Structure formats: structure tokens, C-alpha cells
Amino acid sequence: MDDGGRESGHLMLITPERVFYGGLLGRPRERCSGAINIYVAIKGGLTLEVEGTPAEQGELVVVLPNLRHTIVSDYRSVICVLIEPETVCGGVLEVLANRLSGTEGQFFAARLRAAYEQLQRQACAGDIDSAAFDIMCFGEALPPRALDPRVLRAIEQICRFSGDPVTAASCAEQAGLSSSRFLHLFKQETDISFRSFRAWKRARHLLHFANQDLNLAHLAQEIGYPDSTHFSHSIRRFYGLKPRAIFSGSRDLAIYDGSGAGNSAWTQEAG
């Protein structure tokens, strides 16, 4: 962990299938994440407004994927856990959301705060699989989803962020399917369209660089955005903040990459 992250307590653990964030929330603006968002108040409470539903208040609130919402915290920082929906069995996230929003909510809020404290105490880098992450956060591993190999191969290409942009046509050709058949298969397997999935993963990839001093125009091009305007609009839609605001508020953020090799001591403690 860098000195700034150690002093502020702001941190983010990123794995290919999960994110654990403890840091500044930013100004309350509408956002729409492609993952399930589990927000926990570090102090005080939270107010959640989801499009078309009454405002909800509590120390822990849950937003299912692809729902426009606004989150406000009594305290300037918040804990947020993201789970990628295509990585768990269908219906699991809805069951988890009901548990977190029900009588067990206080227990899970305390558990997630304890996980945050653990991550502050112990620098975390290396290989952290989803099971270890889930056990740390929820006390049990969420059952993984078995995806069609053709869809899984397309997802791996989308998340590589190198070389030529990944298109539905190129994925369909590799899968030996027509474009229309591939798009149908992709949505059937992941519950989201290919285009929306790719847009979210592109915006999610930004998180890896949030505490770095980078030229945003160059970063946008490297991630795969056609231009800076598209980049700014997309990031604001997903996170409720412009890219420059995200980078400005993340200067003291310690970022852990959980997709590296080895870190059995951490995973044993997490379990």
C-alpha cells in the first residue's frame, strides 16, 4: 500500500470478477453500474434512490445490475462491493440482495466493515479468487456460473484490452456462428447484450488506473474509446462522475490488483 492510501484508509481491491472499494463517494449523481452494487456506510447512514421506487435508508443498501440510482452518505466515504453478474449462477444475486436487505443486513454490514479493516491492516496483492473474496465479505462462496465456451472466449477477449477492438462480428466468426445467432447466445448466457456488456467492462477497466497521473485522452484511446467525448459520457453514466473527478478524488487511493500470482497468507486469513 502506498503512503497516501495508508494514511487515508482509502483502498480498492480489484479482481476480474469482484471489486472491494473503501473511499470517497463523490457528489450524489445518478449512476448505472453493470455490476451489483452493495453499499455500506462507514459511519452514519445511506440514502438510496432507485429509478421508479421510493427512497431507501439504512447502513447497507443493494442495487442490482443496470439500475439507475443515486446514493448519498452521511459520511464522505463509503464501502462498495461490486460483483459481476455473469460470474454467478442465475438468481443468486437476487437471493443475496434479499438477504442483505433483510434481517441479516446489520450482520453483513458489520462483516463488510471488518473486511475493510482487514484490508487496511494487511497489504493485499497477488492471486485472490472469487471464492476467497466472497468468504471474506459474505462468509460463503457464491456459486459460479458455467458459461458456454464460445461466450467465455468472447468475454476473455473483451477483457483483454489490447490489440484491435473486439466486435460481435469477430466473436461470432470465431465461434462459428452468424452475428445474430452469436448475439442471441451471448445475451442468453449473460443476461445482457453484447454491446452493453462491452461498454461496462471498458468503464470498469478504468478503475485499475484511477490513482495514476495519466493523460486521460491517451488512456481513453488505450481502453478502446473512439474519442474523449464518448469516454467522458460513458464514465459519467456508469459512475455518476466525470473521469477527471474520479482521478482527482483517487490520488490517495491504494489499489490492489487481485489477479496476480500467489498470496496464500491473505486468502487463508480471509477464509
Short description:
The chain is α+β, with helices and mostly antiparallel strands and 271 residues long. It is built from twelve helices and nine strands.
Report on the architecture of this protein.
The chain has 271 residues and is α+β, with helices and mostly antiparallel strands. It has a six-stranded mixed beta sheet with strand order 6-3-8-2-1-9. α4 (130-138) runs parallel beside α12. It is built from twelve helices and nine strands.
Index terms:
six-stranded mixed beta sheet, 271 residues, three-stranded antiparallel beta sheet, single chain
Low-confidence stretches: 261-271
Total number of strands: 9
Strand content: 15-25%
Biggest sheet strand line-up: 6-3-8-2-1-9
**What is the radius of gyration?**
18 Å
Order of helices and strands: HEEEEEEEEHHHHHHHHHHEH
Mean pLDDT comes to: 90
Q: What kind of oligomer do you see? A: single chain
Question: Can you lay out the helices and strands and say which pair or pack?
Answer:
Elements lengths: L2 H6 L2 E4 L3 E7 L11 E6 L4 E5 L5 E3 L1 E4 L5 E5 L3 E7 L8 H10 L3 H17 L8 H9 L10 H10 L9 H8 L3 H12 L3 H12 L10 H8 L4 H12 L3 H6 L5 E4 L6 H7 L1
Parallel strand pairs: 1-9
Antiparallel strand pairs: 1-2, 2-8, 3-6, 3-8, 4-5, 4-7
Helix pairs in contact: 4-12, 6-7
